């Protein structure tokens, strides 16, 4: 998977290219991150990359010409590398809330160029002319779009075949099937008197699978019931959820 990134702070992306699952994916050639810095296109003595907002008000916006040159360069490289025009995604609170389904859609849509804003954001006409999709990682305001871009990179990279040691991990993750994840346990068998559920020590893989599914369904019902509204539960899932609810009836 090739992802181009436009950012004033390219060094921040060492957090995904140099560590963990995503870092390994990069070293294995399963994930490629290329960075473009609008400051590299600044021609004035101060290498200006911000500009004042029309209409006044606090804060600055990203300077249009340097930003657009960086976006165009990233998009051209993406087309060269993937022989398809990249989807250009701008991370902003005004975007579509990102969820696992959205990650799956973006990961499957081919090469991506992620535009990380700084200051108060970018000129609306750049959004209209150069951005294909605005995406938000949550209803809060950050100081830059770099962390949202890295959130998207991490989530999308996990879906690339071969990136996760055990491909089942991506499927069993929270949200991959639209449900919250089940509880997990590891050694020791007892912590402060709290024991690992016996079923997980039974070695009965079918019972363990059903227990984990029941816990996922039950947790989703308890903590995020709205997620169940968009789920078409199969017969087994309905049976397990009903059993969980019955066990939790007051
Ligand atoms: N929430 C979010 N999801 O994606 N991006 C954000 C976010 O807060 N962006 C900041 C807003 C102004 C600054 O330019 C960057």
Strand content: 15-25%
Number of helical elements: 10
Mean pLDDT: 96
N-to-C span: 49 Å
Largest sheet: 5 strands, parallel
Order of helices and strands: EHHEEEHEHEHEHHEEHHH
Low-confidence stretches: none
Q: Helical proportion?
A: 40-55%
Biggest sheet: strand arrangement: 2-1-6-5-7
Structural class: alpha/beta
Shape: elongated
Strand tally is: 9
Rg computed from alpha carbons, rounded to a whole number of angstroms = 22 Å
What small molecules accompany the polymer chains?
the ligand Nc1nonc1C(=O)N[C@@H]1CC[C@H](O)C1
Catalytic activity: guanosine(37) in tRNA + S-adenosyl-L-methionine = N(1)-methylguanosine(37) in tRNA + S-adenosyl-L-homocysteine + H(+)
Function: Specifically methylates guanosine-37 in various tRNAs.
Subcellular location: Cytoplasm
Family: Belongs to the RNA methyltransferase TrmD family.
What descriptive keywords fit this protein?
single chain; 250 residues; alpha/beta; two-stranded antiparallel sheet; 40% helix; elongated; binds the ligand Nc1nonc1C(=O)N[C@@H]1CC[C@H](O)C1
